[in-house]
Design goal:
This protein has two domains: 175 residues, FAD/NAD(P)-binding domain; 153 residues, FAD/NAD(P)-binding domain. α1 packs parallel to α7. The chain is α/β, with parallel strands linked by helices. The strands form six sheets. The chain has a five-stranded parallel sheet, covered by helices on one side. A five-stranded parallel sheet has the order 11-18-12-13-14. Strands 6-7-8 form a three-stranded antiparallel sheet, with no helix packed on it. The chain contains seven helices and 20 strands.
Length: 340
């Protein structure tokens, strides 16, 4: 009988893990709470820094994991520890017994309306990075479609590196995502002036610096170092942004037709909910806590429980896929070791 591995979460980490487990001869079961696979990446339009269509990646992952048992619109109702395995009760009434559980529950985007000073949900021309990606995919958003947009702003670190928002950590991908989205908007509105308001640009990944240089050199995007202090609206419905340009040492005020808030990654409440059933530790940033942050990132302190992707903290797509493969190899090593 093939060993069953339960994967909680059907995003790109869960799909990649299922694909690799199938290749090794195991029986992965994916439990996904929504009605579709692919997670956040499935809602994105293109991926940095190569501008690869996100759907290409998601479609490939779904195809390679199609032989897994997949439960959509399904949540974890209850998990309890048995002698040497776990009893996982699903919301559809099915109960699964498995020695191995892989958490790939991902993240949730910070709720931008909590930062009232930026005006999301108050001013019509203030949107989030997720809203913008939805428009890229569908061209449906009354705040953007059919309008003559000549000036656009991006606010970095919304809900990240912010003690007031109870999240002091960097979300890792906001800077590069803002650059990607700024370039995409420049392609759609070539005459528009685009401003990125940032605290520090954190561009650590392969080709990220080249992408940043391209945004300035080829697209004329302006990068303003300084946190936005105030957002308001004029009688024409435009957004007025006040900020401090810390490099120039002077205050700045710009009038924008569109303001995009770069909501950061925060922990997924679904992760902590099911983790509490097994008394799995939660880290200070709210994400699931690995055995350590260097050598055993995909391991939990509990036997048979593993992690991959953004359930333990902000990750890029390549990091997420790599962790899924790493977690599968660790599970495989454990199973084969026990079989000897």
């Amino acid at each position: 009988m093939k060993e069953i591995v339960v994967i909680i979460g059907g995003g790109i980490a869960g799909l990649e893990a299922a694909s690799q487990l199938l290749k090794l001869g195991y029986s992965p079961i994916i439990v996904e709470k929504s009605d579709r696979l692919g997670g956040h990446v499935a809602r994105w339009n293109r991926l940095f820094p190569d501008m690869t269509p996100a759907q290409d990646l998601v479609s490939e992952l779904i195809a390679s994991s199609k032989d897994a048992n997949i439960f959509l619109n399904t949540e974890i109702s209850f998990i309890n520890r048995l002698k040497d395995s776990y009893n996982i009760m699903l919301s559809n009434g099915i109960s699964i017994i498995s020695k191995y559980i892989l958490y790939t529950t991902g993240f949730r985007l910070f709720e931008a309306q909590k930062k009232e000073e930026y005006g999301y949900g108050i001013y019509n021309q203030v949107i989030t990075n997720a809203d913008l990606e939805h428009w890229f995919n569908t061209n449906k958003d009354d705040r953007i479609s059919g309008k003559d947009i000549k000036s656009i702003g991006f606010v970095h670190c919304v809900g990240s590196r912010d003690e007031k928002a109870r999240n002091s950590q960097c979300s890792k991908v906001c800077c590069i995502t803002a650059i990607k989205q700024a370039i995409e908007l420049k392609e759609k509105y070539p005459e528009a002036e685009i401003y990125c308001f940032y605290m520090d640009l954190r561009l650590f990944g392969k080709k990220f610096e080249d992408f940043y240089t391209k945004a300035q050199r080829d697209h004329g995007i302006h990068f303003i170092r300084g946190r936005v202090s105030e957002v308001s609206e004029n009688i024409n419905g435009q957004v007025i942004v006040k900020a401090e340009d810390t490099l120039a040492g002077k205050p700045l005020k710009v009038t924008l037709d569109l303001l995009v808030l770069m909501s950061g990654m925060v922990c997924n409440p679904d992760s902590t909910k099911s983790a509490s059933m097994l008394s799995l530790p939660i880290d200070s940033d709210g994400f699931l806590k690995s055995s350590d942050n260097v050598f055993h990132i995909t391991s939990s302190p509990r036997k048979g429980i593993y992690y991959a992707g953004a359930c333990t903290g902000p990750k890029t797509v390549p990091e997420t896929l790599a962790e899924a493969r790493s977690a599968v190899l660790e599970i495989h090593s454990t199973i084969t070791g026990e079989a000897r």
